[in-house]
Every structure is written in C-alpha cells, then in structure tokens.
Design brief:
alpha/beta; Rossmann fold; 7 helices; about 20% strand; globular
Length: about 210
C-alpha cells in the first residue's frame, strides 16, 4: 500500500543529475498523473517531457507545454540569456489538470538561478506546492540533503518527503533521518527495464507505507 500523495507536488533535487526525471516518471506512471516542466534547458536528445512520455506510456494530453523551452543544457538563467530571453517569475501559473495528480519538475537544485534575481526556490514559493526532494543515496548526499531540507524549512516551503535515489546506503539514510527529520524518507527501487510497467512497479516498491 502506497502513501497518500498531495494532488499537486513539486519534484526538486539536491543537484542536477540526481534522478528527478526518473522519480517524476515513477510518480506519473504510479499515480496516473499529469506532468509539467516549467523550465526546460536542453533538448538533446529528448526534453524531460518527451522522456517521461516515453517512460510512463501516458497519453499526450497528460503533458503540459513548458513555459520556457531553452536549447542549451545550462543553468536556466544562462540558457535564457544565450537566447536573449529573460525568465519572469510572473509568467508561471499552474496548468489546470483533470488528472488525479499533477507532477511539476524543477531544474537542478533549489538555488539554481532562473534569472539575475530569483532561483528555483522562488518558483516553488510562487506555485505554492509541497516538495518531494530527490537526492543521491551515496557519498556526499548527507551534506547536500540536509542543506536542502534546511533551505526549504527556512523559506517556509512544505517538504512532503525525500527520496534517496540509487544503491541503498543505510548509514546515509539513518543520518538524514536523524539530523534532517524529514516527514517521509524513501529509497528508490531499482528497475531492470525502462518500461511503463517497470516504472509502475518501482513506484509501488518505492513509495510504500513504510516511507516514514
């Protein structure tokens, strides 16, 4: 039995490349959710929206267009400047979804700039969504995860839970649980194949009722 998820959730990470898109695909497949990537920076070979459509097997109408779809795989503010674009916080509004859940995926970590004044943190605050924080499971994750938890708490943003992505490291999990005290702490289940059924199975195994 999986835990109860909020209707809308923002998936962010402790860094880039920690598995936000994989976890977002699990959520979309397991919750039969819609998906929105507000800022896409980098399109080669696929955007995150295209990748999750492929992995989840969900129909096209479940995916909302990016507000900013930038060509270069860089920090959003730099990718936008390279195209002579300024990302404006006022441009972001949650899409109206008829699905039971909406998954919103960020870009990089919390303090990644979206322009010369604001970061992903301000975007989360504007959208007023609870956060699922994705972190690596291995070496270095304790510091990055605890700092991200502290940043969310000091900013008044609701941390819904943390997912440690990768091979299990119980000592890291114990330290994050002890020092960070997240409301929910999960370890992602490995997948043998990147198919819709595998993502559904991984969702059930990752987000079971023991994630606390």
């Amino acid at each position: 039995m999986t835990v109860d998820f909020p209707k809308e959730i923002f998936v962010t990470g402790t860094d880039t490349g920690v598995g936000k898109t994989v976890v977002s695909a699990m959520l979309c497949a397991g919750l039969d959710a819609s998906y929105w990537k507000p800022i896409q920076a980098g399109r080669d070979p696929l955007t995150d929206t295209e990748q999750i459509r492929h992995w989840s097997g969900l129909p096209e109408e479940r995916f909302f267009p990016e507000r900013y779809n930038l060509e270069r795989p860089m920090s959003p503010h730099a990718a936008a400047e390279a195209e002579d674009i300024e990302i404006l916080l006022d441009d972001f509004r949650l899409p109206e979804s008829a699905s039971p859940h909406l998954v919103v995926e960020g870009a990089g970590g919390l303090l990644v700039p979206i322009n010369r004044r604001e970061t992903i943190l301000e975007l989360i605050r504007r959208l007023e969504l609870p956060v699922l924080l994705v972190a690596r499971s291995g070496l270095g994750t304790i510091n990055h995860t605890l700092m991200s938890i502290q940043m969310l708490e000091s900013s008044g943003i609701t941390l819904w839970g943390v997912v440690l992505n990768g091979e299990k490291h119980p000592s890291n999990e114990d330290a994050i649980r002890h020092f960070g005290n997240p409301p929910r702490l999960f370890s992602s289940a490995p997948m043998d194949q990147l198919t819709p059924e595998s993502f559904k199975t991984a969702f059930l195994r990752t987000f079971d009722s023991q994630g606390s």
